[in-house]
Each structure stands twice: as C-alpha cells, then as structure tokens.
Design goal:
Fumarate Reductase Cytochrome B subunit
Amino acid sequence: MAIMNSEARFGALAKLFHWGMAALILGLIGLGLYMHELPLSPRKFELYALHKSLGATALGLALLRIGWRAVNKPPASLPDIPAEQVKLAALAHWALYGCMLALPLSGWLMASASGTPVDLFNSGLLLPTLVGADDDLRIAFRLLHDLIGKLLMVLIAIHVGAALKHHFIDKDATLRRMLPWGRTDGGA
C-alpha cells in the first residue's frame, strides 16, 4: 500500500492517522465520561493525568494529521455523489478537525486555569501553562470542554452514519477507500 494518497484511495499514512485518531478519540471520550463520575480519590487523579497526557498526544497528532492533509491531497469525491453532499462532507470534516484541535486546547486551558500543569505521562515534562490560575476561567473552560466534547460526539455519529450509508445504502466506494483492506471498485 502506498504512503501517499492516490486519485482513488487514501494512502497508508492518511489511514493510520484516521484510524489511530479514531481509536484515541473514542478512548478519550470513554475515559472522560468514566472518570467524571468517579468519587474523589487518588485513582481519579491518576485517570485525569492520563486523560490530559492522551489529550496532549491527540492535539499533536491532529496537528500532524492536518499538516499531512495539506501536503497530501485527499482523493476527489466519487463522481456520483451530489455536489451538496460533497459540500456537507467537507464542512463536517473541517468541523471534526476543529474539534480535534479545540477539545484538547480547552482541556489544556482548563488545566492551566486550575493551577495543575499537564505532566506528560508522569515524565516530569510539563506543558506550559496558558493562563494563570483562576477559578472562574477554569469553570468557563470546563463548560467549553464539555460542549466541544458533546459536539464532537455528534459529529462522530454523523460521520460514522454517513460512511455506513455510503457503504450499505449507496453501495459506493466511499468507506472502502479509507479501510486498510479491500477493493475500491464495486466489489466488497
């Protein structure tokens, strides 16, 4: 499989970014929902630290992914897809990218405002604080983080639903072009 995208299919690196980020983001969402409900305990603080480190990793990977997309043009939309669907898909993709950046940034801002630095995987490597400790800002960034997280969950549901619609109803190659296996012609 080629590293670069082709006219018909995404390349290996685009697929790795897509599926790796999908797994990381879904894991972060699950961890975020789980840890939020835990009572205050050392375990909860450990999970928050892990969540922050994984969120910082997601931010870095999102930046790399967007950079890769800028230098490695994705395949054109399939010719049978109506222009309005192509425009909506582009809007949804950029909204997903926006959330991939805004969600970890809002978490980083929330951590900064709470006065607890992000220590990457307990290594002693601290991310710089973006704002001073301020409880009002912490609350505002927490609300923003929660809102962006909910928006991201909705966008993921739409993205997955659209991919499944293309695959099972339209029976086109939209989904197959991003899968790490399979054919891009009419076959399965």
